[in-house]
Design goal:
The chain has 19 helices and 34 strands. By secondary structure, it is of the alpha+beta class. The chain has 6 domains: 36 residues, no CATH class; 109 residues, Topoisomerase II, domain 5; 77 residues, Gyrase A, domain 2 (2-Layer Sandwich), CATH 3.30.1360; 120 residues, Topoisomerase, domain 3; 98 residues, no CATH class; 111 residues, Neuraminidase (6 Propeller).
């Protein structure tokens, strides 16, 4: 770290006498301390105050919004404009109205992102499964709290949770909501913080409640017996793998595979997709299918459209005649997000600390939280009843002599002495005396006082019961169990996600039926490629080429041939002949670097067509070395498109030759004018693709090999005379009488 010099002790101001301390001074500051002082508080703020939910299942933004709606009286009442709710929420949430409204939308019933929405909405709130379906502005929509929020706020006014000041210290807000059910698992919750994230999938409410009840009764309860698998609001199909689900339950991490649900209409010959994975949208699926059709990877589809309407999601795929819809869906599952995964990361704030918990640990933490809520509620009720009993006990003493109480009040000269005189007259304390003194004159009769004091015995029983609850953790657990059973019965609903077992899915490899017919392949020096049928070739004229370009390879093969293109950047690119459209000689063809995604400045230099990867490739270097590599070295089990290290980068390449048979011979030419003919079988075979091979043709200083090609009939009259007796050799100068009519060098 460079050190900065001080430029001065201070700067004299024209307006202020003397110097400004530290002005103009550049102080050395360490990067580590700067990050710790500035970035770490921001990171902690994002983790604790924004992105990670707490044990009640809510992030601060959710909690502030719902509590504001609760204080507005929107639980069970008529709806109000969303803009009004957003404005009131800004008193607790110091963010813009857009961010608050976005939060409200995602909690709403209309958006359909939650199994049990917290906001009962009216108007256009968009849909979670659509990327482009925008929700209406807050001035047009209306909302209130959903009835299930009764279970979130039922005890909030009984000191069940702590309250803190809002950002400007004008209001109080709860730090947590006393949720009477494990909402942390019932509704999906995702968030991205700094250096960590959270992704909690949703589970069926009844299953979660039953599982929690089981754990409250038995800490070793088998969770998977009641909590079968995640349940998603979008429906779809959960691909059930017991080991995967068990791992998620134990560690809080894993991935659940989801599949879209569909039906086939044989009369209309179309597939209707009615539910999709939670992690994708209808637009993404449609765009991907269209792209696959354009690429020619899917040929069975004639049309695809979004028919989503009032009945919900619907993507319709029209099929061509004779298409097997089941095989097509297998292909679509494999190539699109119709089959996708939901990554689970159960990261939750526990006492201000982010922790990744399994389902058992998470439910145990919630149970501990709820036990404390019920204990505080019971303590609150106990003190309320004790206070009431205390007042009634004082009132019962007045019953002994009402006339005496009236005389005391009547004969007291000063108002401030009424309470002390009652205290001394009846032996009651100040609180009881204050209560008696506030009774209206019309109530100072035996009937009123008797009615009030009749509650004493019931209060004493209630207090004894509440005290027993506080002294017994088992009784508190039984209260929670009873509440959970009631919530499961009242709000429980059937599973939305169908379960299919991974072992029952038969994933047959979809083999695309490729029409196999004869074709002629042409490859030019500039890297252009053409695939032409024999009939079209016979009816066409001369090839259209770029100026200075020429055809360097031509072969006759079929449409399902594999093609390997070598580049001048030591790479090989693999593709299929059927990936190219049939064309004519009158077009330039397809430019291979663009078609196969070459790097910038990379050029195609050689093409090899093959079906069985037999034969070998000879890489001839300018130094005279030749590397003979079996073509099978470029065969891959996976569908890899690009192979790096296709040949050695230690020396400059002169030519590439493909030899299908060991008895083939190649002819090498040097800048010295010499040539050499050598049988392929005499060049040792190397297994490593990056091998430099062996030295074959010696070069004098200043000379190099410029080309090599397969020797064909008519190129040399007496080719055997150019085969060297020993290797390496310098080759021979060609005789005029040996040069045949077909002699040419690439």
């Amino acid at each position: 770290m460079a050190k900065r010099k001080k430029t001065g002790a201070g700067i004299k101001s024209p307006k202020i006498e003397g110097y400004i301390a530290g002005a103009g001074e550049i102080v050395e500051q360490k990067v580590a301390s700067t990050i710790e002082e500035n970035y770490m508080p921001y990171a902690m703020s994002v983790i604790l105050s924004r992105a990670i939910p707490e044990i009640d299942g809510f992030k601060p933004s959710h909690r502030k919004l719902l509590y504001t709606m609760y204080k507005m009286g929107l639980l069970g009442s008529t709806r109000t404009k969303s803009a009004n709710i957003v404005g009131q929420t800004m008193k607790l949430n110091p963010h813009g109205d857009a961010a608050i409204y976005d939060t409200m939308v995602r909690l709403s019933r209309g958006y359909e992102a939650l199994l049990h929405p917290y906001v009962d909405s009216k108007g256009n709130f968009g849909k979670f499964y659509s990327r482009d379906m925008a929700w209406a502005a807050s001035r047009y929509t209306e909302a209130k709290l959903d009835p299930i929020c009764n279970e979130l706020f039922g005890d909030i006014d009984k000191d069940t949770v702590d309250f803190v000041d809002n950002y400007d210290n004008t209001l109080k807000e709860p730090t947590l909501l006393p949720a009477a059910f494990p909402s942390i698992l019932v509704n999906a919750n995702t968030g991205i913080a700094v250096g960590m994230a959270c992704s909690i999938c949703s589970f069926n409410l009844a299953e979660v409640c039953n599982t929690t009840i089981g754990l409250l009764r038995d800490p070793d309860f088998e969770i998977m017996s009641t909590l079968i698998a995640p349940d998603f609001t979008g429906g779809a199909q959960v691909v059930y793998d017991k080991k995967v689900i068990q791992n998620i339950y134990e560690t809080g991490r894993g991935s659940v595979k989801l599949r879209a649900r569909y039906s086939y209409d044989k009369y209309a010959n179309c597939i209707d997709i009615t539910s999709i994975p939670q992690s994708t949208t209808s637009e993404v699926i449609i765009e991907k299918v269209i792209d696959l059709v354009k690429q020619g990877k899917i040929k069975e589809i004639s049309d695809i459209r979004d028919e989503t309407g009032i009945d919900g999601l619907k993507i319709t795929i029209d099929l061509k005649r004779g298409v097997d819809h089941e095989k097509l869906m297998q292909k679509l599952y494999r190539l699109t997000t119709l089959e996708d995964s939901f990554a689970c990361n159960f990261n939750v704030l526990i006492a201000g600390t982010p922790r990744v918990l399994g389902v058992r640990e998470l439910l145990n933490e919630w149970s501990a939280f709820r036990i404390e809520c019920v204990r505080r509620r019971t303590y609150y009720d106990l003190h309320k009843k004790q206070d009431k009993l205390h007042l009634l006990q004082g009132l019962s003493k007045i019953l002994l002599d009402i006339d005496k109480a009236i005389r005391i009040i009547r004969h007291t000269d000063e108002e401030t002495q009424v309470v002390p005189n009652l205290m001394s007259g009846f032996g009651i304390d100040e609180i009881q005396a204050e209560y008696v003194a506030e009774i209206k004159l019309r109530h100072l009769n035996r009937e009123y006082i008797l009615k009030r004091t009749e509650d004493i015995s019931q209060l004493e029983k209630d207090i004894e019961k509440l005290q027993g609850i506080l002294n017994s953790k088992t009784k508190i657990k039984n209260i929670i169990i009873k509440e959970l059973q009631g919530i499961a019965d009242k709000y429980g609903q059937p599973r939305k996600s169908m379960i299919i077992y991974a072992d029952d899915i038969v994933e047959e490899e979809v083999v695309e039926e490729i029409p196999d017919y004869a074709v002629n392949l042409f490859f030019t020096k500039e890297g252009y490629f053409k695939k032409i049928t024999p009939l079209s070739l016979r009816m066409s004229g001369e090839h259209k080429l770029k100026e200075g370009d020429k055809i360097i390879e031509h072969c006759e093969t079929t449409n399902n041939t594999d093609l390997i293109f070598f580049s001048d950047n030591y790479k090989a690119y693999k593709t299929k002949a059927f990936e190219f459209a049939d064309t004519k000689t009158s077009v330039l063809g397809e430019y291979i670097p663009t078609k196969l995604g070459f790097d910038e400045g990379e050029n195609a230099v050689f093409m090899i067509p093959t079906k069985d990867y037999s034969g070998c490739v000879l890489f001839v270097f300018e130094s005279g070395k030749i590397a003979r590599i079996p073509l099978s070295s470029y065969e891959t089990k996976t569908n890899r498109k690009k192979l790096t290290g296709a040949y050695s980068d230690k020396e400059r390449l002169a030519s590439i030759v493909f030899a299908q048979n060991d008895d083939d011979r190649i002819m090498i030419r040097s800048t010295s004018g010499r040539i050499m003919v050598i049988p392929v079988s005499e060049i040792s075979l190397k297994t490593g693709r990056t091998s430099l091979g062996v030295s074959i043709m010696k070069q004098k200083k200043g000379h190099r090999v410029i080309s090599a090609q397969l020797l064909s009939e008519g190129m040399l009259v007496n080719p055997d005379s150019y085969i060297p007796k020993t290797i390496p050799s310098m080759g021979q100068m060609p005789k005029n009488e040996d040069i045949g009519e077909q002699m040419s060098f690439v």
